[in-house]
Fold this protein.
Amino acid sequence: MTTDNNRFHSLDTVRACALLAGIVLHASMSFLPGFRETHWPLADNSTSTGLGIVYFVIHIFRMTLFFIIAGFFARLLHQRLGTKGLIKNRLKRIGLPLVAALMFIMPLTIIAFIWANKQLGTQGPPKMEFPFPIIGPPIPWGHLWFLYVLLVIYFIVLSTRSLIVFFDTNESLQKKITKIISFCFKTRTLVLLLAIPLATALFFTQWWPQWQGVPAPIMGLIPNFPALLAYVSAFLIGWFLHKHQVGLHMLAADWPLYFSGACVGVIVALYIAGIQPAFTTIPLNTLERAIYAGSYIFAQWCGAFAFIGMAVRHIKTPSTKWRYLADASYWMYLIHLPIVWILQAWMLQWQLHWAIKLSLNLIITNLLLLASYHYLVRSTLIGKFLNGKVHPKSMHLKANG
């Protein structure tokens, strides 16, 4: 881990990877077996079970990874700005972009639906049946759900922290919590402490589409309980890691162990649920359901810890290219979905192998995203709106970071 000018380059890289992996994830969805049976129009005829496994592996830990990093940098900002400053900053950098994206980016996805429906000879919006309950007004967050959930988590965490600080005047509760988490870090049992509550919650969630992991709250005003539990926990671990950065060094030393745990968890989960993608509830008996929930969430936490540990261990100096991608990744993720979906609709009837279509989609999408960031965002008011400052177009870093 290195910090130039108080910047954590290894964790910047992790955050960029978590966001950019989402682009790969969404581009691959069109080629997953069984997706067309959900009545989703952007489902290609050329599919791959192997690509489904890649999707499963990326999906298993990507968002946990993101919320850990979000918690880490939230505490960093809290130390600099205080509670009021953090709230103001997050409303500007998370809340306003969320509203803007809902107004100007999400409507563009309708173009992809219209184009795909026209090619398939159908009319109207996709008639998908959501396997999860929609709580509150059916607000379609789409791929932006993580920003809304992040705002909800800021409210929960900062409110809870204020209550603890108010009542726990001698910090006895805080010290006990810190002692427990530190002990679990040292004994490598933190994964179990975190996995058991979430696995239990998912086990008792009857509507849970198991193959999809933690159900993303892509629609509705109130996020589902398993998602809140999963991502509040991840956020708090990130907050703890910033306060006790020795934990980062422990993860760096133990990343091969966590990586091995993630591999075991993935293998067990796929053995029980099958390698064929499933978008609804899988009929498992009680034992299978319990083992699957435990192995999946175990793999989720192990995978996130392994990725962070590996980055901290091996990224010891700032990288100009990764710094640039870290700066660009927020914009790239916000606007990628209409581009990915429109390209999928364009290629829907092409008689080509899925690997060619996916490669073309990713190449074209990323070229457009990087070009738009470089020329329209990085050194403009849009860049200041998203990141709070205007970056020079040059990729060169100053000597002080």
About this structure: The chain is about 70% helix and 0% strand. The mean pLDDT is 90.
